[in-house]
Amino acid sequence: MDSNYLSGRIQAALLGIACGDSLGRSYEFLSRNEIREMFQEIVDRDGGTHNQAKGTYTDDTCLTLCLTDSLCNGFDLEDIADKFVKWYDDGLWAADGKTVFDIGISTRNAIKRLKSGVSPLESGDNDEYSNGNGSLMRILPLVFYIKDIEIDDRFELTKQVSSITHAHNRSVISCFYYLEFARLLLSSTEKLEAYRLANETVKNYLISIDIKEQELGCFDVLLSGNISDLPEELINSSGYVVDTLEASVYCLLTTQSFKEAAVKAVRFGLDADTTSAVTSGLTSLVYGLNSIPNEWLGELARRDEIDALANRFADSICSTNESQN
To answer: In the CATH hierarchy, which fold is given to the domain comprising 3-125+139-324?
Structure first.
């Protein structure tokens, strides 16, 4: 993969997630009916549930940037976990450098365990009722690190990174599906073909490692056909990880631009910031940096620092690839 192309896609991914996140932040927890009735136009605005200024991203982006920052020095699960703790304690990569807000229950529980000395291999909640979208929302940078390794290794590293906070198979599978889909998009596979291939690859792999049929059934909407044929009313946007994954894929497949997809994700309501952030991660890989509206980028907190991080990560990936060739 050309280094300039890779660098551009990393930059687009990080900035895209941050912009989508910021766009959805002030609409979080509103129902789609409330959004429809109250807002004719979706714009990044001041206020909202957390009373933050426009251009302010949430924990979704903070933890995405923490993961990216760690991966610049190779894969070290302890270091990833340490950066999550530094975000929680000191505001590492927070939009204003200090304020931590909108943290999910499972993520908070996991970080408290990490702070008490629990290994990141054992820190994440593992029960069926701990399948929020807190690992999915931050997982995308990993695709750039694992894109050229074997599928067994891709699954294992995805599992480890998800499990720092969300260790149940459903969260792990959601992250795995998302990254397999993203990997295909990153290779310039057309989005509908990428969706078809992701379904085939993920389903066959999960069957090969004996994932329980009951767990596979949770992904029927994605794996059993074309999700884009469904009416919008059947697409949910709660904080449940499968809902967020389905909504992000749906928004990508049923729109034709970065902005259209991000706005559609926000209009679904409820966990609007995360739905938009996860959607925007995918659309950034399809449409690139130039597709992100300039007004969103211009208002985004820490824009220059995110650019610098993206360049540092791209240099790290390219240096690793050169040393292996």
So the answer is: ADP-ribosylglycohydrolase fold (1.10.4080)
